[in-house]
Amino acid sequence: MADRLAEHPTFSLASISKSADDDALVITREMSNRLHLNEGQFLSLLALNRTKLVTLKSIAREYRGDEATRASKVAELEAQFEQECSRILTPSQLSQLQHSNDHPAGSNEPGHGLG
To answer: Is pLDDT at 5 greater than 70 in this prediction?
Structure first.
């Protein structure tokens, strides 16, 4: 079995999952500090951020040779993310989130945008 797996190298789901968990926690804490989330909002956004990060990595891997499709898939994911955020956040919080996304503070890393 190990030989067969060695013939077909793949990514480690455990490492991607751990990385997504860690990154999602950092992002959600930053959102909580900016938006003053309640516990329910924090937990909902933590799950949403984790899903978004895992999906972003999947899109990047799957469409690495097709920039146009990758950009389209990322835009679609961002739209879904914003729609889900609108269900979780108050209108005021959503406005703050959108404003902070238009004027990011110091984050130049791709894939860590919040909307």
So the answer is: no
